[in-house]
Design goal:
heterodimer; A: about 130 residues; six-stranded mixed beta sheet; B: about 450 residues; alpha/beta; Rossmann fold; Helicase, Ruva Protein, domain 3; 4 domains; five-stranded antiparallel beta sheet; 19 helices; about 15% strand; globular
């Protein structure tokens, strides 16, 4: 499965809509088998969603995200786990171990229910690998 | 009023809170040290949550990671004034703001951080968009899979410069898509000219499209450029193309084939570097078969065809669009309407919307005029739509023969009414949320 994280320096980028770099991590049974980084041009929400679909992303872990983009991604079958903050490696480990919902990874201010994620339930993400 | 006895920090807080613009200060590590009331309102983030966080995680602007205004000021000492940026607030809404920055210095003149003030420009941006009609992909709101498929191909279509035919019922957003294609294309910096072909009589349409020369007819005292000339280098959008006469069809065919046209009364041809996007609410293939529309022109304009689904086929978008229009009209009418009552929402969700999104927009504008409170009730809806909803029409029971089909129907309707909120939908259906989740899985009902 492909997990994508928008990144800025070594951290999760603050906003998925505006991020200009994406880390793509390929996981197999919870074990990383490859990764690469791609540069994202300035795009509208629908274009960004189309790009993520084209890249074959299954899960996206990100900071803030606009509602239209979150809904577009989730209705395309991409699981969106938004409003997280921290270093990319920390967040990736937290995802693999099912700890992404810990308060230390929470970005301040998000709409009700958003931190539970879109598409599937966040608590199960790591364990399902 | 500033109370006596407050210390200087408290006084500063009182002063900052009285300002209508958002203000925050950061230390040298970009951590927020103060955050006023207006900043809370604009970002939607409470002060307690913002203090101590890095400013980019709180402001969430498109420039934070690429072209940070505060970093520029801290590095150069020069202020930034009224720079327009976009942010994503805590409700997931994209907002237009302007930011200004300055250095924060101590008594000795040493820089101890920075201050950023920002102003909500969403109303101005919304009105500007309405006046200039500068809509982009961002303004097309949908989670419908057919629309998503269109988004997948839109960038390639925009890049290609080929003719595009957009088919769809009235009010489905044909012009919005045409503008989105133009704004994504290499021609985006050149004009986008929209012409409604059915709004002009045949004789006028020709001179309107191609212009005329002085003396071409009585009162033609000087040359007038046509819409093709105005769109030079850009895009011309010909709406209701199915309504044009055969003589205009011939001239249009020539423009598409030879990239040249002759203004009325001109003796020489003029070159046209214009991309043509056409739209119709008619079935041009059928008209072409019946001989009512030139088949050679049909094949020329139909290089790429986009078919926009009517709103009744993308009912999952209705709650999203309602929310979008409520936000927009709140700004335009300076009101604070939060939502629709359950009953009003149920009426809209079961209505057929023959006028599609434009009709939904007009219905909500009607509600905004009448609604004095915070919630739109059924009584605020136009009387013309009450009684015409699908729910009021006899249900064709013959279509739903099995219990399973009835269950699917009821669950889907409950989810629609509750904007896909499963807890509320379960409550409405009188079942436990876990039962609903089990049924969604077993009945294979796809939700968000």
């Amino acid at each position: 499965m492909k997990v994508a994280i928008p990144v800025w320096q070594d951290n999760v980028s603050s906003v998925l809509d505006f991020a200009n770099k994406l880390l793509l991590v390929e996981l197999e049974n919870g074990v990383e088998i490859g990764r690469n980084e791609i540069v994202l041009p300035e795009q509208s929400g629908p274009e960004r969603a189309a790009k993520l679909r084209q890249l074959g992303v299954n899960v996206i872990i990100c900071g803030a995200v606009s509602r239209p983009l979150a809904y577009t991604l989730s209705s395309s079958g991409i699981e969106v786990l938004p409003f997280v903050t921290g270093s990319t490696e920390q967040i990736l480990t937290a995802y693999k171990t099912g700890n992404l919902s810990l308060p230390e990874y929470a970005l301040p201010g998000c709409w009700e229910g958003a931190r539970r994620g879109f598409g599937r339930r966040r608590g199960r993400c790591g364990r399902r690998q | 009023m500033i109370q006596m006895g407050l210390n200087s920090y408290e006084k500063t807080d009182v002063i900052l809170d009285s300002i209508a613009d958002g203000v925050f200060t950061v230390d040298e590590n970009w951590r927020i040290t103060s955050f006023n009331k207006a900043a809370e309102q604009i970002t939607g983030i409470p002060r307690n949550n913002a203090i101590g966080q890095t400013c980019k995680d709180v402001l969430r602007a498109n420039v934070c990671e690429t072209d940070c205004a505060l970093r520029y000021t801290m590095e150069t000492g020069k202020p930034v004034i009224n720079k327009p940026v976009h942010i994503i607030d805590a409700q997931g809404r994209r907002k237009a703001i302007t930011i200004s920055t300055a250095l924060l210095k101590n008594r000795n003149g040493k820089t101890i951080g920075g201050v950023e003030t920002f102003r909500d420009m969403t109303v101005v941006e919304e009105l500007r968009k309405q006046v200039q009609k500068q809509y982009s992909c961002e303004d097309i709101i949908s989670r419908n899979h057919k629309i998503q498929e269109l988004f997948d191909i839109l960038p390639q279509i925009a890049e290609s410069d080929c003719a595009v035919l957009i088919e769809g019922q009235t009010g489905t957003g044909k012009e919005l898509f045409a503008r989105a294609i133009h704004n994504l294309s290499p021609r985006r910096k050149k004009p986008f000219i929209a012409v409604n072909c059915s709004a002009l009589p045949d004789t006028l349409l020709e001179s309107e499209l191609f212009g005329y020369r002085a003396g071409a007819f009585t009162d033609a005292k000087k040359d007038k450029p046509g819409r093709f000339a105005l769109a030079e280098g850009g895009t011309i959008f010909l709406d209701e193309i199915g309504d044009i006469s055969s003589s205009v069809q011939v001239k249009l065919l020539r423009v598409l084939q030879e990239k040249t046209y002759e203004p009325v009364g001109a003796v020489s041809s003029q070159k046209a570097d214009v991309r043509v996007i056409t739209a119709t609410n008619k079935n041009l293939a059928e008209l072409s078969e019946q001989g009512k529309f030139r088949s050679d022109l049909y094949y020329r304009i139909n290089v790429v065809k986009l078919l926009l689904p009517p709103l009744k086929e993308r009912s999952e978008d209705t709650p999203l669009l309602i929310e979008h229009f409520i936000n927009r009209f709140n700004k335009v009418y300076n009101k604070n309407i939060c939502c629709l009552s359950d009953d009003a929402m149920a009426v809209l969700l079961s209505y057929d919307f023959p006028g599609n999104i434009r009709e939904l927009e007009n219905i909500l504008e009607h509600c905004f005029v009448l609604c004095k409170g915070n919630v739109i009730e059924t009584k605020h809806l136009p009387t013309s739509i009450i009684g015409k909803t699908v729910a009021d029409q006899p249900t064709d029971i013959g279509k739903f023969r099995t219990l399973r089909q009835m269950e699917i129907l009821m669950i889907e309707q409950a989810l629609h009414r509750n904007k896909d909120n499963k807890t509320l939908a379960a409550k409405e259906l009188g079942i436990d949320a876990s039962t609903l989740f089990r049924k969604l899985k077993s009945l294979n009902i796809r939700t968000e």
